[in-house]
Specification:
Elements: E1 3-4, E2 7-11, H1 18-34, E3 43-47, H2 53-63, E4 68-71, H3 88-93, E5 98-101, H4 104-109, H5 114-126, E6 130-135, H6 139-145, H7 149-159, E7 169-172, H8 186-204, E8 212-216, H9 224-229, E9 235-238, H10 245-252, E10 258-259
Parallel strand pairs: 2-3, 2-9, 3-4, 4-5, 5-6, 6-7, 7-8, 8-9
Antiparallel strand pairs: 1-10
Bound molecules: glyceraldehyde-3-phosphate.
Glyceraldehyde-3-phosphate binds near residues 11, 173 and 237.
Length: about 260
């Protein structure tokens, strides 16, 4: 019997400097602790900008907070003359567990392709990080190809070409639902998650098919329950609402074990 522990992930995007970052993590940890949050029942991770990671790591270690740290991106290269790039090795050393890869904002504004994503997934595994592979369709793709085709294809592309697969998480984020206030319905999220899981199982085996699949796109404390109620969605990737400690803690409150 496999348990998929829900993951509540907060992607801060390009918000908050390192001082604001430590204030938010402190408030979040206190709020979760006051609410009796059980981290073994729902992992809570934050993804601050690169410049905040060291300060947040120091705070988490000093205060023994159970909030987990992740990065928003990494380089496909290990080290060397790649100005502006950040190696997965540096992120591991800073205590990051997760790294977001292929977020639609990276695909859209930084021309990241499926090949880039695949190479970054390999780099994450090489440096002991768990990639959270972001997939999702634009409004145009939704209208022309339906909801599952693009996220399924992006998932297969990201996981293909590796000798063996390490641990990974898939975050299904319809691009039309990010930061827009438009939300996929729980049934839609469930059905796409199901299609992604079936494709992973078919292409990469039953064990990989047990990986966690998250939903993201305008998730708030008042709509998260619907997504987590389905047995297919194992957590959420939250943008805007993760910048507010109480709102994000409110999202994490909807924790549960999913027993398969
Ligand atoms: O990474 C998070 C997603 O882009 C969702 O952002 P949002 O919750 O602000 O819509």
């Amino acid at each position: 019997m496999t348990k998929r522990i829900p993951l509540i992930a907060g992607n801060w995007k390009m918000n908050l400097d390192h001082l604001q970052a430590i204030a938010l993590v402190q408030k979040l940890s206190w709020t979760l602790s006051d609410a009796g949050h059980e981290y073994s029942s729902a992992e809570v991770a934050v993804f601050p900008p690169f410049t905040d990671l060291r300060s947040v790591q120091t705070l988490i270690e000093a205060e023994k907070f159970e909030v987990v740290l992740g990065a928003q991106d990494l380089s496909k290269h290990d080290s060397g003359a790649f100005t502006g790039e950040i190696s997965g090795a540096f992120l591991s050393k800073l205590g990051c567990k997760f790294v977001l890869i292929g977020h639609s904002e990276r695909r859209q504004y930084h021309s990241e392709t499926d090949e880039t994503v695949q190479a970054k997934v390999a780099a994450a595994w090489k440096h002991g990080l768990v990639p959270i592979i972001c997939v999702g369709e634009t409004l145009e793709e939704l209208e022309t190809q339906g909801q599952a085709a693009v996220p399924v294809a992006q998932t297969i592309a990201a996981l293909s070409g590796h000798e063996t697969l390490g641990e990974f998480v898939i975050a299904y984020e319809p691009v039309w639902a990010i930061g827009t206030g438009k939300v996929a319905t729980p049934l839609e999220a469930e059905s796409v998650a199901k299609a992604i899981r079936a494709a992973i199982t078919e292409n990469f085996g039953a064990e990989s098919g047990q990986s966690r699949i998250l939903y993201g796109g305008s998730v708030k404390a008042n709509n998260v329950a619907g997504f987590l109620a389905s047995g297919e969605v194992d957590g959420v990737l939250v943008g805007g609402a993760s910048l507010d400690a109480e709102e994000f803690a409110g999202i994490a409150r909807f924790q549960k074990h999913i027993v398969l």
